[in-house]
Amino acid sequence: MTTTTTESEAPSGAPSGPTARPKAVTRLGDRIFSGTALAAGTIILITLAAVAIFLIVQAIPAFKADTSDNHILEGQPFLAWVWPFVFGTLWASAIALVIAAPIALGIALFISHYAPRRLAAVLGYVIDLLAAVPSVVFGLWGALTFAPMLVPFYQWLNSNFGWIPIFGGTPSGTGKTILTASLVLAVMILPIMTAICREVFLQTPKLHEEAALALGATRWEMVRMAVLPFARSGMVSGAMLGLGRALGETMAVTLVLSPLGIVTFNLLNPENPTTIPAIIALRFPEAHDEGVSTLIAAGLILFIVTFAVNAIARWIVARRAEFSGAN
User: Fold this and answer.
1) Contact, 252 vs 135, CB < 8 A?
2) According to a count of CB atoms within 10 Å of the terminal CB, is the N or C end of the chain lower?
3) In the chain, which ranges are continuous DSSP H helix?
4) What is the greatest pairwise CA distance in the chain?
5) Where would you find the membrane-spanning parts of this chain (predicted)?
């Protein structure tokens, strides 16, 4: 007669319950790599927190001090003083993004799906090289060469489209306008947007592209149905990174625009709003006491604006995170 040994009747030396899984062997290289990655991420968070704390602590006196004694505010409340510069920063960056985004997408599509391989390699190298040009060089080029070249174009815009408010008024005789500064910013943010969009376009599943072409789609229809939907989140990321650089750009705008604290949407007038980085760079050498705190407070406002822009970009990208090549 066969007997069955139950769990309670198991030999005393045998382990009870499910068999214990052997522990994974941790190698020294794995521990070093994971520790290094954790340290790098922690350093980034600590640095960001330190910058925020520094800006907040140093900006507090600007909100508490008497504005009549502040040589930067000149009797104005801080928010009334900084608002035109916030407007100028957002206005110039928005114009630059509107100009650069279609051009960057077109260049990226041409390099990734239309250009011959050798030409695509050369164009990609030139675009990447453009990102290495210092901002002060762009500023000098914009102020000394590009602005005078645009004067006849501005006069033509004013003569033919002056009935549109943004092109009305008296055009600048020097070409140093908010539109010129925005065009220089557009050239500066073009490389990073193009590089990101190009890499995202190249990651489109080849099966999707070939399937669209096999069903009779033209090259543009294939790009519109397969490439652009797949790369939507990457395009948004590239645009937001370019916008972030435009928001924080200093020297290019400083060399092109005069430091005027006004709010106007006109693109061709000689009187233009300037940006927060430009006013900080121009006024910091002469600042002292509460004036330094005022400029640091303006930097805090710029920090908040930039942080908000990147947070919105992350939210937009996260909404598309569930998209994959299979859907």
Assistant:
1) yes
2) N
3) 28-64, 78-109, 117-130, 135-141, 147-161, 178-202, 206-214, 219-222, 228-230, 232-248, 251-256, 276-283, 290-319
4) 112
5) 37-60, 80-110, 122-144, 178-197, 250-268, 295-317
User: Quick one: tokens of 205?
Assistant: 């599943």
Q: Give the CATH number of the domain where residue 217 resides.
A: 1.10.3720.10
For residues 67 and 177, give the distance between their C-alpha atoms in angstroms, rounded to a whole number: 30
Q: How do residues 277-326 score in pLDDT, each as one tens digit?
A: 888 888 888 877 777 888 888 899 999 988 888 888 778 777 665 544 44
Q: Is residue 46 part of a domain?
A: no
19: left (phi over 0), alpha (psi -120 to 50) or beta: beta
Tokens of 42: 């922690």
Cα 114 from Cα 123, distance rounded (Å):
12
32: in domain: no
Does residue 244 fall inside a structural domain? yes
Report long-range pairs for 76-85 (Cβ below 8 Å, ≥24 apart): 78/294, 78/297, 81/261, 81/294, 82/276, 82/297, 82/298, 82/301, 83/263, 84/260, 84/261, 84/262, 84/263, 84/273, 85/261, 85/273, 85/274, 85/275, 85/276, 85/279, 85/298
Phi-psi sector, 65: left (phi>0), alpha (psi -120 to 50), beta: beta
Q: How many domains does the chain have?
A: 1
Confidence band (pLDDT; 50, 70, 90) for 2? very low
Which position has the higher pLDDT, 238 or 24? 238
Asked if residue 198 is part of any domain, the answer here is yes
Token pair belonging to 185: 């910013």
CA–CA separation, 306 and 14 (whole Å): 64
